UniProtKB/TrEMBL annotation:
Gene3D superfamilies: Nucleotide cyclase (3.30.70.1230). SMART domains: CYCc. GO terms for biological process: cyclic nucleotide biosynthetic process; intracellular signal transduction. It holds the Pfam family Guanylate_cyc. One of its GO terms (molecular function) is adenylate cyclase activity. This is Adenylate/guanylate cyclase. Residues 365-497 form the Guanylate cyclase domain.
Amino acid sequence: MLTHFEQARTTAEAHEQLQALMRELLTHIAPERLHSATQSVFDANALADFSYADLQHHPHPVWILSEICRLLFKIADVKALQQALAVTHILYAFKCSHNESWRVAALYRGIAQIGLHIIDLGIKNVVSGLQSQEEFALTPIDEVLGLWALTSAAIANRNLRLAATFARQWQETASVHGFSQECVRATFARHLFGLICGEYAAPSDQIEAFKEIVPPEWRSAAGFLVEWARRIEEGRRIEPRNIDEPHPLFLGVEWRPAAQSEARRETDAPHLSDDFGLLCDIRRAFCHPNAIDELTPEMIERYADCLARWELPRPLYDFETILKHKAAIKNFQYVMSRLLGKQVLETVTNKRPIDPEVVTQNEAIILVMDVRKFSTLSEGCSPEEIFDLLNPIFKIMHEELEQEGGTILEFVGDCIIVVFNTFHGQQTQILEILKATMRALFRLHAHNALTVQAGLPEIRIGVGINQGPVGIGYLGGLARCHLTVLGNTINLAARIESSSKDLPGDVIVAETCFGSDAPDIWIAPDGINFSMRDVGCHAMRNIAQPVHLFALSPLLRSWVDFVPMGFVAAPERGVVYLDTGNARQPGIIDHHFGGHDMHSACELLLRQPDLLLEHLRGIPLSQIEFRLHTQPDFDCAATLYAAYELLGKRPRHELLQILAAYDDLIDQGRISSPGWLSDSLIGVFIAHQRRVADMSGGRASDWRLLEAGLRVIDAALHLLEATPTGDLARIFESRPAWFPEERRMIQEDRRRYDEDIALRSHVYFAHVNGISMPVEGLWLDHPQSVFYKLWVKTALNERGEERFCFMALDLSSTEKNRFIIRVDPDSGTDLNGLGPLLEQHETRKRQELGKNRPIEPIRYPADNSDPWYFGQGHEYTILDAPWEGTVLTAAEVQHIHEEWQHKGNA
């Protein structure tokens, strides 16, 4: 019997099958919804209203959730893939609740992420899902979809050789298990790769034979391949035309001719996914030297650059042959720049090779990169396989560093030497070099995830960077010489690179790179993608004076993903939940769960580090994944920062204890020294996150927000490292130039908050515990201040004899009602008992309105999964409405508080 996925041959049919599945699901778990809704209402978002406990009413819940995900992948637009992500959380919870393997949920999540261009994390999740284990049997169709996703991910990483490898596995797996549609798609992909790479041996009639056996819905696209192959044989180009594709050939990658292909071909630096479309356009339009001949030399050179990016030697040779015929000098320059580098070529062609003059550059920056344990890696490899291992690494380093003005001076075995500010006209700041180096490390991380799945070893590198004088000149005799750069600066850079084997960081930078002063990179923090640690002075072999070094690592140096608020997790090998998970088990570090007295996840981690270290023992950092809750806050970022330290070399335990103690105060709302907010860690942290969100139009991803938070924490600990007795509440006081926009934002926000008090507030009287009579409190209605929470302590203490004893906030929107009531954590008062009372009114009104909440997972100490927050984790000093909103109105919430009889008066 065909599955719903197999029955749906087109995107339209996938939509129909999805609707049928949703109706079938609702028949079992919520039949009342079938009578009050039209078919157009049903989509995968409806599943968000149900918990895994609800799904137990269906006889085959895993099967139906899996089929829904597969159909969403066949639709594969942004909305469908986002819906699939939401479904994976429900599937995960259901599998874990039954002690079943969660890997199919990881597989589906990875497939969706690759389609949404979250490539690196998607690769990791797909690879995790495809790993074979005795207790886990992956269904054949899911294995096929995983290989389809990896094929697409390899394309996004501009690795056609690897894409062809995965496409072959995709086709073979589909063929073995009789999935005819998938076999067609995989075969189609392999034909396409052959035509693009210029290595296709089959004549057009063989592709035409393939066209005759494909289903009718694929014949238009297959006919296009036939025409392409014929034009290669005839030496003619193919004119663009519309091609029907019943559902996507690749995931998140477009291959069909662009509607405005000329505009696409003019793009100089396209996005990776767009670049594949550009490549297809070029290979389709100029698939024969006769077609190339009509181009101008400038256009030939531009298109040749695209072929070089995709590592296609045969098509590139055709373009260079025509360029040589049309413009021999330009072709010579183009070929030689590839062999020597643009800067070296320019120097050579503008200078007499016999000129003995050596030019000294005093501010040159030298970067040395070396592959870790390469001798071990290359044992048993043929020379060709060694090239295959090294070439992608060197390509990544070249692409990232050359665009910042770097010139690869030497390829020395598994090492490269890159020079900056050495040749005429070069001027690159160290900050841009460091950012580019971190981007290269990030790309290498994703590359490793793909190649390890293909059976290749993981590659790690070390980098050393130094600045100082170098000499530029010709080395050798008049008959044979070589333009090179020499000097102690290069020797020292190589020694610094070697020190990365022992120091806590993959990139080690000499102090000289930052000038005479200490690093001051946070004056302009935008785009800083690394953390920096002062590792002191170190003696270097054959170097007279010790060298002051700084160790750098990516801000996000492992896999990081996000789960919904209130997510309930189960232990998973290689996965750690931070500030989420709602359980007390190894690998789950969540202080919200009952049974301990921790005030933050960071404190829990430092007091019980084995929850992390024992859980991950024997697992390399490159294979570890951290999962945090969405909209990551200070506790999320601080805990992840501490986890990185504990897993790395030489963790700074004393500094982490100071960070955890500060985090405890922040998570309880105890903002010390509020008057110094613009100098505080928490003030700048929130301001920087907000600024990053504003710069992206309010649509910053959770990854960008987390990275922003880590950036501020790292800057604060950099200062704290120099002054261990420093106060994080005023840590930036000595650096008024750091984070300038954020500090101005905080100062302006204080004025906005004062306007909130004057224009958007009113006073009412109600009880708090610890005071026998009703007391005066402030109701703040939709504050315009961003940092209102941080001003609360100040606002509750500023009025002297008339000080407010509590504050209520109305943060409701058109989507949901949300209210917060809080007291000063240091006031000696609390709201213990008000939360359960609000929850009783919530339950009663929901029953009257027929708006039930999901029961599982129960959020202690309530009886459902989305109750009012009673404040139990913060000594009952704060209450918060349900995450999805309350049915109570502002007037009802205030009235309930006014009528509440606290425990002292009960």
